[in-house]
């Protein structure tokens, strides 16, 4: 992994395409983390540069500085990709690294600071250095497809919160079942069976629901 570069204020502003005065304003508003101090010299790194480019991208999409400040605070106090996935934890989900522009493209203008903060609260989004990370390519693809079908992202996220509750209950049911008759080491091997049962039952439930309608 390459070592992070460091920049003085003037060089950082030039690379980010902003003025030094604007950089100072962003720092005063706490839109970027404080620099590393070496005597009277302030050193900024690639994470600061990525944050400034994110701010520019969000401003170009019509977001306000106050909304961006709320989002920046959420990321600064949120979880990183290791927290999202659990370091060393088994998972079948593939995380996706995204630029702010790519994330906005997925959600057709609905990647507002409010929706992004809600996605972070759910554990869908985290930060990895200067990048945004979605916990699951499958969930990203499904949620963006629902938005393209006209369902507001805020409602997709609200539904996801309810789905999470039911999914946790199903996972607990399956885990308890296995541990009553097998060992904990059998759980990773048997988890595809649990997924198949849930997928089949959901398919049958959707059939029943559509027949009723």
Automatic annotation (TrEMBL):
PROSITE patterns cross-referenced by the UniProt entry: HTH_MERR_2
UniProt entry keywords in alphabetical sequence: DNA-binding
Boundaries of every HTH merR-type domain copy: 6-74
InterPro entries xrefs: DNA-bd_dom_put_sf, MerR-type_HTH_dom, MerR_fam
PANTHER family the UniProt entry points to: HTH MERR-TYPE DOMAIN-CONTAINING PROTEIN, REDOX-CYCLING DRUG-SENSING TRANSCRIPTIONAL ACTIVATOR SOXR
Stated name of the protein: MerR family transcriptional regulator
